[in-house]
Amino acid sequence: MKITIVGGGFTGLSAGLSLSQNHKVTLFEATGELGGLASAVKLPGTDWYVEKHYHHWFSNDYFALNLIKKLGLSEKLLFPKTLTSIYYQETSYPFNSPLQILFFSPLPFTDRLRLGLITLFLKLLSMNSGQNLEKHLAHEWLRKYFGEKVYEIVWKPLLFGKFGKFAKVVNMAWFWARIKKRTLVLGYLEGGYQTLIDAMEKQFKKDGGKILLSTPFDTKKTTDYDKIIITTPSPIFIKMYPQLPKDYKERLTNIPHLHALNLLLVTKEKILEKEYWLNINDRTFPFIAVIQQTNLVDAKHYGGKHLTWVGNYLPEGHPYLKMTKDELLKLYLPYLQKINPRLNSQFLILNSQLFMGPFAQPVFPTNYSKIKPDFITPIPNVYLANMDMVYPWDRGTNYAIELGQKVASLID
Predict the structure, then answer these.
(1) SS percent in the chain: helix, strand, coil, step 5
(2) Are 245 and 377 members of one domain?
(3) In terms of domains, do 169 and 212 share one?
(4) Distance between CA atoms of 98 and 84, rounded to whole angstroms?
(5) In whole numbers, what is the pLDDT of the chain averaged over residues?
(6) Is residue 90 part of a domain?
(7) What CA–CA distance (Å, rounded) separates 261 from 332?
(8) Are residues 74 and 195 located together in one domain of the fold?
(9) What is the spatial distance between Cα 81 and Cα 175, in angstroms, rounded to a whole number?
(10) pLDDT band for position 220 (50/70/90)?
(11) Helix crossing, 172-181 with 109-124: angle to 10°?
(12) CATH no. for residue 221?
């Protein structure tokens, strides 16, 4: 068969790898690079690539880890020790393990026990039981079972920080999946995610696949191919095929999306001394997380410089999305200085990069499984595979790889 794939992210590359051995496959990527939301840049004076949007793997991300093994990259896989903390009332509290939760002093001891026990309960729930939580709103379930104080201090700032006006729409199955999936160790590849992207590209081409970069797909040529896999976000898919039935378009349009906005700072010193990941549990802050890449990877790979992301998820039309990197840095800096008072004019911010990922985070309302898009679309021989379909799991390359393999299996 002649198969075309639209989109060179991990879903498109994964589908291409699965299909190229037996079919004639052409992959179209509108930008000049592969990787999608996991695409990377190489900063001046650095040995390794760094992702535009922070990424890591959990130790149970089997689809990604199996692909890494299959492509002969296992020796490059790293699982360094990392620390996740919560920033609350001008203090950073380690929040990586059950023991650290028990020492989380902003909560009374009985609430810490409750937090640990309910979290363990969610962790142990089966897939079917966790999925059944989709009939509940996350904010209501969390308040009821964790208790008011735990909800207000721990979960509410995170839920509203990420989803904003959509926070009261998110269902509990999505939240359960975040707890279920988390592991104590996090994985990364030598050279960055670009190492895996390059290996996938090389194998795809070796198997006869063709990649066209900086080449948008012309939907007028849909009939030139036996099968077409679209891996773009749903809003873009709708624009590509305006002839889609009205009810189908409404079904996709009713799934809200947030844009990822990440400011990458290159500094002489670390902004976070110990943490890899710092959740901001203070909604007066204009961002939701600070991620210190050089507490995951040695700074020597980045020319001895330190890399830090300041992360946000924002709805379309948000004023931050229109700001330049200098405007955002000016807005963020006083809050970063609260976290690290040494971050002043002498601290030396050497460089900054701003990256925006459109439609990066779908919002899953109650009973989402009833409206979740299918691979098969109303247009004959056109298939859809994107992040709206990884539910109840959260967006990530592991599920993008799984998605590509599944849609390829359906076609094959």
Answers:
(1) 40, 20, 35
(2) yes
(3) no
(4) 12
(5) 96
(6) no
(7) 13
(8) yes
(9) 25
(10) confident
(11) 90
(12) 3.50.50.60
